[in-house]
Amino acid sequence: MTRQRLIFFQILLILSACVEPGNDYDVIIHDVNIIDLEKEIVLEHRYVGITGERITIISSTALKGSGSAVVIDGSDKYLIPGLWDMHTHYYWNAETSNPLLIANGVLGVREMFGDPVAINYLRDDTESELIAGPEIVSSGRIVDGAKPFWPNSVAAPDAKTAREIVQRQHANGADFIKVYSWLSREAYFAIADECEQLDIPFAGHVPYDVTFWEAIESNQASAEHLLGLLESSSAEEEHYMKVAQKKEVDSTLISETNFILYLLNTFDAGKFDSLCAKLANSNTWLCPTMVVNRAMANLLDSTLGNDPRMAYMPGSITHGWDPKNDSRFKDTDEAEYAARRQLYEFQLTLLGKMQQAGVRFLAGTDFPNPYCYPGFSLHDELAIMVEGGFTPAQALQTATINPSIYLNKHDDYGNIAEGKFASLVILDRNPLEDITNTQSIRSVLSKGVYFDREDLDDILENVKSYLKLTPISELMLPLIKEKGIEEALKQFYYIRDYTIKKYSFDEWDINVLGYELMKQNLLNEAVEILKINAEMFPTSSNVYDSLAESYWRVGKMDLALKYYQKSLELNSNNTNAAMMIEKITGK
Asked: Cα Rg for the chain, rounded, in angstroms?
């Protein structure tokens, strides 16, 4: 059984048990209290009829359904719209993220580092009910400067290239363009102009070379992490921008610690108020991702690793949460962490002020960055917003109504009304009284598919059980060296297909095994292992890139070329594959 099938076995059972279509109502929620987030009130004792994927009727009197309808007792319960996480890196680990999202009532995500091919496969699977997962809105690959910060980003060193990237990502089906910190002014404004011409939004970081004021004027759809906000609220903004654009040199700003303290010490409240007023009257939204800002300010806190939610995260993810294993933080000292904590606490004091000024917010978490848990951390983000000055209703709006408006999906999502998708969460307690009550989830409906508390507990337990399995590489490496690749492959397939599951078959883990074999000069063995990975994960650009490298190392250039081309077909922004194709063909 493949990894995805293993994790979602329980979900598939639940889906197969759904009621027969064609009745008056497939699902009736009986006597529930609806949270009306537009009016910020509770509508007591309502009856909700659902047919197929949508809400058919909302009534103040009891509904009668046929005998096959699922009837949910909503007495003393509270009904809210399904939640959206508006800043995720979801597709990197969708297999384990999906159940965590469903179990936490997060039924929509905005993917901020997308791969159109992979995203479309995930959409096809969820829309066909092969797996249960969220609605997905996705960017293409990150668009960054001449030397991108993240691997697999797209470099836009100049305006011409930037426009071509926008055109290509738009043609490939990206929902929006993701911009990043190291873009030049020339490239950034070219992206803004091209996006306007093609009528596609762009969102992401406000680049270092661009002011927040300019980002607003350029109609950047959303700004993430509050980056650039304090820079443009600084009394010394002009000086900082000259340094950022390399028109001046200021050695005191090279240190991250000094730079944070500089922003805090030069904060101008009047300028901040003016920026908020401009922001409130613009097309730009804020996605502050305070939960990741908080985590990254506290990475030295040893208690973070004691969080029971760690049991739901793969080792391949949590390994990178150790700052020693993260290039961004491995050289960070205590003084910088102290400055980051000071920055976080100051940003927290600004949230309520911005909300009162009319700035529009989106809730996002940036999972799976350190200590950001798919599904769970969205509830943390809402609690942080309330801590920063939002009312519980205002915080909930950032994950329901606001995303639906921002995404132009208000006809389908955002609040509870007839005709909208039955993407709903039933709570035991009133979230308008205490925002942490969003965690008191009794049941979830994902486009009409019903998961009760027992189902959700089973889903969560399946993830934990899967992650306790031993990686198959721990068996395969010594077996290959002892008995040879043929015998090892027989064992691999037998264990995968016929035995009680004791091992996990993870794309990342098998890929690492392939590279370890290459490192030990077991090249033909590496080819065979990476062929299996491509067989098991045929939509992954990365596995074909690795398979191509193994063929390249054994000198089979025709097969290396074939699989580099396949990798590039799946990810048109794979610069390594493009480089190797050029190297092999000489073109």
From this structure: 25
Residue 505 in contact with residue 473, Cβ under 8 Å? no
261 and 199 in contact (C-beta within 8 Å)?
Answer: no
Three-state SS letters, 275-317 = HHHHHHCCCCEEECCHHHHHHHHCCCCHHHHHCHHHHHCCHHH
CB 110 within 8 A of CB 158: no
How far is the C-alpha of 347 from the C-alpha of 272, rounded, in Å? 12
Question: Where do the H-state alpha helices sit in 407-540?
Answer: 453-467, 472-483, 485-498, 507-519, 523-536
Q: Which residues, including other chains, have CB under 8 Å from residue 115's CB and lie 6 or more apart?
A: 91, 140, 141, 541, 570, 571
- Is residue 249 packed enough to be buried (19+ CB in 10 Å), middle (13-18) or exposed (0-12)? exposed
The full DSSP string for 202-250 is EEE---TTS-HHHHHHTT-SEEETTTTTTGGGBTTHHHHHHHHTTSS--
pLDDT in tens, 333-384: 999 999 999 999 999 999 999 999 999 999 999 999 999 999 999 999 999 9
CATH fold for the domain made of 471-585: 1.25.40
pLDDT of 128 higher than 80: no
Strand-by-strand arrangement of the 177-179 sheet: 154-155, 143-144, 177-179, 202-204, 222-224, 285-287
Round to whole Å and give the CA distance between 577 and 566: 9
- 305: burial class by Cβ within 10 Å (0-12, 13-18, 19+)? exposed
Token pair 């059984």 is found at: 1
Tell me how far apart the alpha carbons of residues 257 and 259 are, in angstroms, rounded to a whole number.
Answer: 5
| Neighbour tally for 521: CB within 10 Å | 9
Cα angle 99-103-109, degrees, rounded to a multiple of 5: 70
Regarding beta strands 424-427 and 106-111, do their DSSP bridges make them parallel or antiparallel, or are they unpaired?
unpaired
Instruction: Give the model confidence (pLDDT) of 83-122 as tens digits.
Output: 999 999 998 788 889 999 999 999 999 999 987 777 887 8
